Prior knowledge:
By secondary structure, this protein is an alpha+beta fold. It has 27 helices and 21 strands. The strands form two sheets. Strands 2-3-8-5-7-6 form a six-stranded mixed beta barrel. Strands 12-14-19-16-18-17 form a six-stranded mixed β-barrel.
Amino acid sequence: MSLPTALRFARRELRGGLRGFRIFLACLALGVAAIAAVGSVRAAIQAGLEREGAALLGGDAELRYTYRYATDAERAWMDATALAVSEIVDFRSLATTGTGTGADRGLTQVKAIDDLYPLIGEVTLTPDIPLAEALVGDGSLPGAVMESELSDRMALEQGDTFRLGTQDFVLTATMEDIPDANAGGFALGPTTLVLLEDLANSGLLAEGTLFESRYRLDLPEDADLDALRREVEDTFPQGGARWSDARNGAPGISEFVDRLGAFLVLVGLSGLAVGGVGVSAAVRSYLAGKTGTIATLKTLGATRTTIFQTYFLQVGALTLVGITFGLILGAALPLIFAPLIEARLPVPAEFRIHPGPLLEAALYGLLAALVFTLWPLARTEEVRAATLFRDGGEAGSWLPRPVFLIATLALLAILIASAAWLTDSTMLTLYTAAGIAGSLAILALAALAIRSLARRSTRAARGRPALRAALGSIGGPRSEAISVVLSLGLGLTVLASVGQIDGNLRQAIARDLPEVAPSFFFVDIQPDQIDGFRTRLDEDPQVSRVDSAPMLRGIISQINGQPAREVAGSHWVLDGDRGVTYNAAQPDNTTVTEGTWWPEDYTGPPLVSFAAEEGAELGLALGDEITINILGRDITAEIASFREVDFSTAGIGFILTMNPAALAGAPHTHIATVYAEEEAEGQILRDLANAYPNITAIAVRDGIARASDLLDGIAAAVSYGAAATLVTGFLVLIGAAAAGERARTTEAAILKTIGATRGRILTSFALRSALLGLAAGAVALLAGILGGWAISTFIMETSYAVIWSSALPIILGGIAASLLAGLAFAWRPLAAPSARILRARE
């Protein structure tokens, strides 16, 4: 019958109000709100993508082919299945204006369309004219429309002409919006729309050119998408077709949102861990004030089970209140800021109450609250009446009974497993959990070391009363060092780690990459053009290096006769098509790590040399067979060797290199990388573009700029998450300062009695807060630097250097936050009458 009794006691305790639990509620609510808000935004984007899936994709379903068109049989199946079929060819090219030295060029993503485009949705143009009318042209030249970003950069106005390859076009309008703008994912250049038939004489779609053909299907309303997908795979097993449908109209965007959302949820869990420190401290502080009540209940016959259940129910009820507040805030914030968020999003979003993210946040909040409160609640069993009546303070073992330790560890395991399952990022979750645990351990050890150092330093502070008093307080048995360093330090650690990772990634892109990366990538070099192309560059003294290779694209469809994804999962090498090249002899700059290269005159069954690191990740071994679909033809090759491939230099790197005979007769082009002095780049581009209009040049600096723009948005989102963690830490800091107000009041009364002035006492309090803030910031900086180094080195595999511009504000922020919280609770202790305070302690 202990539970009904405990419930009655808990209800009576709650009548006393929320005094002592305000920080508890604030920390829990803020942590839950951050996770709920991130999840709600992610769910809103996913709902928008699902709702507008057909419009984003440009049809109910789409079939994509790598560097080839659909065969007659494939097209016949589409025509028989769909109500309408729209054909699109997507590739990169250079838009050119002028001639000779006055020519201007801009990289563009060309979308060559037919008369049916778009099957779903509308294209918005300026001036407001129908797309079909815009593409007719002016009677002498075919029309084209492009994004204003490109037309502004090239100073093109309506009626001006430009070239794609060898074909002239007249610009008739600029695009404000196209329904399938995000269907293809990240693009290196703005889009230009032209009619497919108008590219017939451009020289851009020659055999072997790198392009992608897309066929959008307008299907009957009762079409079974899964059945149609299986029918394509069964009817054309070697076609290499890739199927997408309206259920996921922008797969690249959707996956990016999922990954970023999962990462932000884990950042939110870091904030919840910070809040957990405050939750645990609030419960310990509250129970310390209830020692008399607990002892009295025990003298009246209450069992330790009844005592535990009383306060467990009380804390449980308050936990539900905190989670509820957090869910309300987390659901409301996305709705309030929906217009601002939608204005920044490139895809539609459906902002409403999404139950899934709220339930996920509630689960995290509940588990975190249990993990951080079970331990201090368990210690209520150790309170003894005799100890209380002798004013012995806390008694009993520091550790609770084994059953509570096991329960705490089990709850922690459930929390980590839930995060791994719900975010679908097991390794990232484990890394985050290890990082949080490691940071807490470092901070806890540092706090103990700071207390010890402060005790030892008091003698050195003789003659400086304020400093000596501050050091004595930090090193005392009731020091705030542990709570301050843990709460503020963990928040600052997350912020420091984010700053270090972001800064090093930007350095790798903006500084390190250009030093080792080529000036240009050239693609679509026809076999009869490669010799002239090389001659022009070999004769240029400002060109230091030219690498070229034959280029095909293929999809790894099978491993040892089994579907590749069933064998190796969702590895990025299996996600879409990969570059394939051939070489008779082992290149001079290639290091074979296992196996041997084939003889130069080898003509036997197909052999392949695979990238060593990626091969190990896929679980491949020498002698394994992989099937690669190239231009609709399956080629099964045996792995003859593994070799080192370094993608970090942005040079030419192929996962797959085959013997020449395996690809004999396959149409292909060449790609090349050119390393040149920056001042020579303009002339190189002009000469090669004039001589070979079909060749596409991609300037590395342009790619770096677009990657940096994308990184800006990611960094901003992550920084907001880290800031929420820091705010939670500041709340915990306020709670620690509030809990220590009584001790500071007594301390101030004693110091005033022995002659200390208010100014000196306030200086002592300020020094104490500043030193603890400095310590928390310094330790957080060390932990953040270690975390940033580990992620940059082992996960992102980039070079690492400490970003001091990001690091120093962490220390200053720690000092400022600790000072603000400490001084906010220093005025009342200074103002309290000394006589009344000391009489109350008698």
